[in-house]
TrEMBL record:
InterPro entries: Acyl_CoA_acyltransferase, FEMABX, PG_Glycine_Bridge_Synth. Signal peptide: none annotated. PANTHER family: LIPID II:GLYCINE GLYCYLTRANSFERASE. Belongs to the FemABX family. It comes from Streptomyces glomeratus. SUPFAM superfamilies: Acyl-CoA N-acyltransferases (Nat) (SSF55729). It comes from the Bacteria. This is Peptidoglycan bridge formation glycyltransferase FemY.
Length: 374
């Protein structure tokens, strides 16, 4: 049976998302409002005669200057049956629709896990001087269906984006993430899963009087002050404050618990802050920020433990700490962040990564050339 793709209303899209255990926070209708430089459309997949979508996706359209041509991007989506043997039945009508809208290239991120490494396996790899990249370390667990999905995509003409630069991060969404499974575990189980240093630091923060509280829209400037300090220290380009204000307004309007802000106080001063996103049973640690002052009271461990605890109380199946470097060398400035996340006792996961389909090869090549020189 053929499938057809057409625009759906925000209400239809949200109903589709709500009926599933979870989808990426970048595939909910409100995410389009976070990206004002892109035009967002909600698309649905329908069977012949069907009135309710059997698949959905948020597509972001970025116009080329002076041309009515667009880059179409479906971050961590669309939400379709990725393991269907007839995957082309799902993707061909998507390409046809986007071509009709003036798209010259399509980028998407299949939400398909390829393999996982336990915390212990990652820890051993970091300690092994011969191990240079996580991707070259034998996995603890492999998902056999993922390679078949990749083969089908290549057979249709999709091209896999590079896994990342020297730091292991892809140009779009992270291919390697660190996650803490929560389903079927008590909070005591989760605490016991933390490594010894993590448990010690959580206790140290409690003893020092660190208080973690939930903030609101009015606390975003306090978060942002720490965020810009973190950006300078960790050498990344910070987003502007209006980005986070827009994110808060859009996401919480869709669902009051879609986005949360946490702040860690010590002696009346904010020492760390973090944002948390929730869609269904999946919770993400989204953005983090901290001061270099009074790090001995361990505000970062305190804030993460509060977020983990709250995610568990919400009934989350997974707490996702998002991107990690796959570079294991001591010279990598991101290795400390990997060590911090490994201490939660979860696992590293590799996703299928992002894939491109050039609808106009000349414009697609020009875009790649431009991006490589940015």
């Amino acid at each position: 049976m053929t499938l057809r793709v057409r625009p759906i209303s925000r209400e239809e899209h949200l109903a589709f998302v709500t009926a599933r255990p979870s989808v990426s926070h970048m595939q909910v209708p409100s995410w389009g409002e976070v990206k004002p430089d892109w035009r967002a459309e909600s698309l649905g997949w329908f069977e012949e005669g069907g009135r309710r979508p059997v698949g959905a996706g948020l597509v972001l359209l970025r116009p080329l200057p002076k041309l009515r041509r667009y880059l179409a991007y479906l971050p961590e989506g669309p939400v379709i049956d990725w393991h269907a043997p007839d995957l082309d039945r799902w993707l061909a009508p998507l390409l046809a629709w986007l071509r009709s809208r003036g798209a010259f290239s399509v980028k998407m991120g299949p939400p398909v896990v390829v393999r996982r490494w336990s915390a212990e396996a990652v820890k051993e790899a970091i300690a092994d001087p011969a191990a240079r990249r996580l991707r070259d370390v034998p996995a603890t667990e492999e998902e056999p269906g993922a390679s078949q999905v990749a083969d089908r995509l290549r057979g249709m003409g999709w091209r896999q984006a590079e896994p990342g630069g020297e730091d292991g991060f892809a140009a779009g969404q992270p291919r390697y993430v660190f996650q803490v499974p929560l389903a079927g575990r008590t909070l005591d189980d989760v605490r016991r899963g933390l490594n010894q240093q993590w448990r010690r630091n959580v206790k140290k923060a409690e003893k020092a009087g660190v208080k973690v509280v939930r903030g609101g829209y009015g606390d975003l400037p306090a978060f942002y002050a720490l965020y810009t300090e973190t950006a300078e220290r960790d050498r990344f380009l910070p987003r502007p404050l209006p980005y986070f204000q827009r994110m808060w307004t859009a996401l919480t309007a869709e669902h009051p618990d879609r986005m949360r802000l946490y702040l860690a106080y010590h002696d009346g001063e904010v020492l760390a802050a973090a944002t948390m996103l929730t869609v269904g049973t999946h919770v993400w640690y989204s953005y983090g920020a901290s001061s270099a002052r009074r790090r001995e009271v361990q505000p970062n461990n305190a804030i993460q433990w509060r977020m983990l605890s709250d995610a568990h109380a919400l009934g989350a199946a997974v707490y996702d700490l998002r991107g990690i470097t796959d570079t294991l060398e001591d010279t990598d400035h991101l290795l400390g962040l990997l060590r911090f996340k490994v201490g939660t006792g979860g696992h590293a996961a590799e996703y299928l990564g992002e894939w491109d389909f050039p609808l106009n090869r000349l414009l697609h090549k020009a875009l790649n050339l431009y991006m490589s020189h940015r």
